[in-house]
Amino acid sequence: MSDSVSAQPSSPGLPKGAFQVLKVALPSPLRRLFDYLPAPRAPACGWQPGLRVRVPFGRRDVVGVVVSLASGSDLPRSQLRAIGEALDEAPLPSDWQWLCQFAARYYQHSLGDTMQHAMPARLRQGHPMAGRTQTLWLPLPNDETALARAPKQAELYALLRQHPHGLPGRAVSAHGFTREQLLALQKKGFIQPQEITLTAAQPTGGSLLASPSLPLNREQATALSVLHEKLDGYHPCLLEGVTGSGKTEIYLQLIEALAAKGKQSLVLVPEIGLTPQTLARFKSRFRVPVVALHSGLTDPERLDVWEAAANGRALVIIGTRSAIFTPLANPGAIIVDEEHDGSYKQHDGLRYHARDLAVARAHYHGIPLLLGSATPSFESLQQALTGAYRHLRLTQRPSRHPPAKLELIDLRHQRRQGGLLPSAIKAIKSTLAAGKQALIFINRRGFAPSLACHSCGWMAECGQCDARMTLHRQPPLLACHHCDSRRALPDACPDCGSGDLRALGSGTERTEETLQGLFPDTTVHRIDRDSTRKKESFEQVLKEIQRGEPCLLVGTQMLAKGHHLPHVTLVVVVNADGGLYAADFRALEHSAQLLEQVAGRAGRAAHPGRVLVQTLHPDDPHLGQLAEHGYGALARNLLEERRIAKLPPFCFMALLRVESPQEQAALALAQHAAQALRQWLKDANVPVRCLGPVPAPMERRQNRYHIHVMITADKRSHRHAAANWLVQWLEANREARKVRWSIDIDPQTLA
Ligand code: ADP
Ligand code: ZN
Ligand code: ZN
C-alpha cells in the first residue's frame, strides 16, 4: 500500500460508503474492542489480525493488538482516530492469538488485558521484536599491528579471530566491548557484520542427546510406550507416580522422541520447582536448544526466549505458569509437572489456571498432553478415572525404597519444645547420630503465630485485617501475613499494661531456635520466605545440604516440594491439622497433597526414610487413611464425597468477589448482582445455582470488606452463560463502578 491510502475516502475493494476499520484490543479492563482507521503506512503483510500497533487512546499512546478487520463502525468515520503505527511487519503468532482469545473468553476477562499479560514486557512496551535475524560480526584478515594504539580494539579483534564464524553482538558486549569499538573496527576494515536468519532448529543428524537416557524400569517403559502410541494427536495423559518414581525421566524421553521429529516440547513446572537443579537436568540431557522462562531473566532475555520458541529455534521450553502463553512454531507436546500445584493458578487480574489452559492448548494443536504428579488434583484424577485421560501409573521408586508411611503421633496432653514432641526430638537425635539429615516441616514463618497478654487475654491483632499478627524475632516485630503491615513489639499489654506478654504457638524461627539449643553443634538451616529473600541464598543452602553433612532443615512448603534431598532420612511434620477441619472444601485435598509431598522428601536415595506427623487428631479417619494407604486411596475416597456433595469436579463454579472500604457498598452491589442474576436464570431457564452474598472467610483485609457470590452448575456451558451474563450486567451497572469486583472461574480457594 502507498502513503496515499489515508487520503482516500475508503480502501479499494470496499463497498461504497464503507471504510476500513481495525478493531483493536487495548490494555483496558473493559471487555470490548476499539475501532481505529488504518495508519497511513501499512505493514509489509498488510493489515491483519494479530498485528501489534501503537494507537492514541485518550491522551496517551498505548500498545494494542489488531483483532479483526471490519468495513465500517458504529461510530461515524469522523470520530475515529487512526492507528499511529504498526509495530511489526508481521502478525503475532496465530497460536498465541488463539490462546489469548480462548483465555479471555473462558475466564471472562478483557481480551486486551489478556494479551498484555500474555506477551513479554518488551512487546507490551512497544519495543520491536528482536527479529528473526541476528547480526554476526566476522573477522577479516588484516594487519593487527595497525591497532597498536587502540588496545581495546586490538583485544576485540583478537577475540573475534578466535571465532572465525562470527559472534553475535550480544556475545561481544557480554565480553565487555562496546558497540563503538565494533563500529570503529568495521570502519578500519578489520571486521564486517553479517545478517543471518534464525530458522527453526534443524534435525541435528547424529544424537540429540548430550547424555544417555536411563534404561527404564517396567512401569516406566509401559508408560512411555503408551505415550508413543499417539505422538501426532491430542492425547491427554495423567502420569500418577509416587514421589521419586521417575516421572521426570519419562518427560525427558518423551521430549527426546518429539525432538527427533524436530518438534518442540513446552514444560511447565511449579514456581518453586524451576531451580537451576531442574534446569540443569534438562540441559545436560539434550544437545538441542533448551530455554527457560524464569524470574531471573531480564526483559530482553525473556523476549529472546519467547522468539526462540515462536520461530522454532528452541526445542525445549521450560517455564512457570505464564510460560503457557509461549508461542510454538512446531508444537510437539505440553508437559505439566506437579500438575496439582497451586502456583499454576493466578490469583489476580487474569485468573487463569495454566494446567487448564494447557489442556485447551494441547487440544487446539492436536498434540499429547502429559500431566504428572504424585498427588494429582481431583480434577485431573477424575478425568483419568473416567477414561477421558489415559491413566499412567508409577508405583515404585528406582531406589526401591517405597515412600515412607506416615507415623501419626499424638500432640494432645504432651509437653512440646519449639512445637516438637519428645518422640520427635528423639528421632531427630538418632538421625543426626547416624550421620543423616532431618527435615522439620512447619507451615508458619515467623517466631510464633500470635502474641498474647497472660493477664487479660489481649491478642496482637492487625488493625486492617480480621487476623492476628505474627511475632517475628529476626528482626523483632509484629507482622500481618495478610496485608504485610508491620508494628514494633509492645513492651507491655496495650489493654492492661501488664508486661507478661507471651508468644503462643510455634513458627519456623522458634523451632529453629529450639533445635539450635538442643543440638548446638549441628547446623540448622531455616528455609522460608524471610530467610531466603536474597535470591541466591536458597540455592546456596540447597547446595550445602546436598553435600551431605548431617544437619537440620527447618522450613515451610518452600522445602516441601520438588527438591531432591538425598541425605534426608527423617521428616517431621510439626502440625498436620491445618486442612482437616477448614471451611474451604479443597483444604483437605491441598493439605493431603502437601503432607504426601513433604513425606516424599524422606529416603529418596539409598537410605529408607521415616516420616513423623504430629497431630491433635490422631483418630481422624482421613488422616488415618492418608497414613495407612497414601494419597491415592484418600483422594479416591474424597472424590466420592465430592460427588455426593456435588462439589467440583462434579460441578462447575464461578466466584464473584466484591470489595470496598465500605462494607455496605460491597454488600449492596453483591446483593443486587445476585438478585439480577437469579431473575435472569429464572427467565432464561438456565439451571445454575446462585449462593450468597456471604462475607468472605476473612471479611476485612487491608481495610477492605470482601463479599462473595457463588455460582455453581452441573454443566460448564451453563456456568459460562451465567458468568458471562453477570459480567455484562456488572459492566453496565453504575453502582459497580464505585466498588472493586472480579470474577473467578474455577476458583481454587474460597478466600
Ligand atoms: P519424580 O520426577 O517422579 O520425582 P525423578 O525422575 O526425579 O522422579 O527420579 C527420582 C530419582 O530416580 C532420580 O535420581 C532419577 O535419576 C532416578 N531414576 C529415574 N528413573 C530411573 C531409572 N529408570 N533407572 C535408574 N534411576 C532412575
Ligand atoms: Zn493485658
Ligand atoms: Zn493485615
Defining traits:
seven-stranded parallel beta sheet; 751 residues; binds zinc ion; binds adenosine-5'-diphosphate; six-stranded parallel beta sheet; 30 strands
What does the model show?
- By secondary structure, the chain is an alpha/beta fold.
- The strands form seven sheets. Strands 11-12-10-13-14-9-15 form a seven-stranded parallel beta sheet, with helices on both faces.
- Helix 11 links the parallel strand 13 (331-336) and strand 14.
- Helix 17 runs antiparallel to helix 18 and helix 19 crosses helix 20.
- The two termini are 54 Å apart.
- The structure holds adenosine-5'-diphosphate (ADP) and zinc ion (2 copies).
- One zinc ion is lined by residues 453, 455-456, 458, 493, 495-496, 498.
Topology:
Blueprint: E1 20-25, E2 34-36, E3 52-57, E4 60-71, E5 85-86, H1 94-106, H2 111-118, H3 121-124, E6 133-139, H4 151-161, E7 167-168, H5 169-174, H6 179-187, E8 191-197, H7 218-229, E9 235-241, H8 247-259, E10 264-268, H9 276-285, E11 290-293, H10 299-310, E12 316-319, E13 331-336, H11 354-365, E14 368-373, H12 378-385, E15 390-394, E16 406-410, H13 422-433, E17 437-441, E18 450-453, E19 470-473, E20 476-479, E21 486-487, E22 501-504, H14 508-518, E23 524-527, H15 535-547, E24 552-555, H16 557-560, E25 568-573, H17 587-599, E26 610-615, H18 621-645, E27 652-660, H19 663-684, E28 688-701, E29 704-713, H20 716-732, E30 740-745
Parallel strand pairs: 9-14, 9-15, 10-12, 10-13, 11-12, 13-14, 16-26, 17-24, 17-25, 23-24, 25-26
Antiparallel strand pairs: 1-2, 1-4, 3-4, 3-5, 6-7, 6-8, 18-22, 19-20, 20-21, 27-29, 27-30, 28-29
Helix pairs in contact: 1-2, 1-11, 4-6, 7-8, 17-18, 19-20
The structure holds adenosine-5'-diphosphate and zinc ion (2 copies).
